[in-house]
Amino acid sequence: MFFVSKVPCFGVDLILQKRLTMFSPSEQHYYARQLSLPELGPEGQQKLKKARVLVIGAGGLGCPALTYLAAAGVGTIGIVDFDRVEVSNLHRQVLFTVADVGRLKAEVAAERLQSQNPHIALHSYTEGLNRDNALTIAKDYDLVIDGSDNFPTRYLVNDTCVLLDIPLVFGSIYKFEGQVSVFNYQGGPTYRCLYPIPPGEGEVPNCAEIGVLGILPGIIGSLQAVEAIKLITGLGEVLSGKLLVYDALRASFHSYQFSAQPDSRSFRTLQDDYGTTCALPNPELEEITIHELEELMQEAVPPLLVDVREPDEYARFNLGGVNWPLKTLSQHLPELLPYPEVVLYCQTGVRSRKAYEILSEALPTHHFRHLKGGVAAVGAWS
User: Are 217 and 349 contained in the same domain?
Assistant: First the structure.
């Protein structure tokens, strides 16, 4: 016959109380539900408190990741984003409100997170990430979460993490599908193992051009936060060597394994050029607003208007002019010769910026401008 003792185990209680003294009464109350988890407890919460996490991008992925990392008690969080809040961001970037439009995302996010959890430290970096500052910014952090939306930045972030030997939590979204993985973890595969060859600029449209279900980045960004917490605390199985794919329309998750490739770590320095989208906007590029374009088109000799989107996009909605997709521009150079002034436009301004660079180099005597914000700006300015 076995007897269960009714006497409290004072030794265990005293040990627990001693561990809880690592946190102020306010912190104990704030993190009470996490501290109650036997798998996490005070030791895991202390690991979170000491952790330093850098988040690249305070956009659709960054907002939920930042929210839950801050709420979980990650002690130091860095936020890298040079962009400003726009109305079109608000359906998915839930840290921002209409009152924040025009303000720097990194600064607004830091303010909002600080008000949600006063027990953590936040640092905002409002310059564009590039090869000159990436290593300097990331070297003081334990891991990086990539919430960027373009390939040049993803390769830059990956290479930075490889050189600094710190883990990278990756996330991406496309319409109704999202992906999550962990790279560079304990010598495991890197982003270049999964995607060794970057796509050409303009080949893959971003969410501004193709669209995205607003809740999707919320799901993927939250999964990135989960992976970061697992990395910090040592809990569970990390998504290293695995790509988790979520399909919102089919309500399905699939996991795909991939292995490390020797060539993925062959570099010793960052590349000289990761693409123009990693850095700040080109100050030499001449932009024009939708209102300025309307006035310009009323002149006696208006400029040639060129839509560099795909034909199906042009058919759905356009501002007039000719439709010459970005990938076919070189074929239309002879047709441009009679027009000394040309205005280029696309969906959001990404492809028209690239078209500006291509045509300015090919026809330096012509005057090119591109529509700021693309056709998406029509609703914002109307």
Answer: no
Same domain for 189 and 164: yes
Instruction: Identify whether 9 is part of a domain.
Output: no
Residues 350, 277: Cα–Cα separation, whole Å: 9
C-alpha–C-alpha distance, residues 228 and 30, integer Å: 20
Same domain, 268 and 294: no
Same domain, 192 and 330: no
**Alpha-carbon span 316 to 326, nearest angstrom:** 17
Judge whether 106 and 129 are in contact, CB under 8 Å: no
Count structural domains, the chain: 2
pLDDT tens-digit readout, 52-79: 999 999 999 999 999 999 999 999 999 9
Residue 173 and residue 164: Cα distance in Å, rounded?
26
At position 332, the amino acid (one-letter code) is H
Cα-only R_g, the chain: 25
Domain of residue 330 covers 287-381
**Which of the listed residues 247, 278, 309 is the one where a domain comes to its end?**
278
pLDDT digits (tens, 9 = 90+) for 337-374: 899 899 999 987 878 888 898 898 888 888 999 898 78
Question: Quick check: is 111 in a domain?
Answer: yes
Q: What phi-psi label fits residue 253: left (phi over 0), alpha (psi between -120 and 50 degrees) or beta?
A: beta
Nearest one of 368, 326, 360 to 346, comparing CA atoms? 326
39 touches 16 (CB < 8 A): no
Residue 4 lies in a domain: no
Label each residue of 120-186 as H, E or C. CEEEEECCCCCCCCHHHHHCCCCEEEECCCCHHHHHHHHHHHHHHCCCEEEEEEEECEEEEEEECCC
pTM of the complete model beyond 0.85: no
Residue 344 sits in a domain of what CATH number?
Answer: 3.40.250.10
Residue 79 lies in a domain: yes
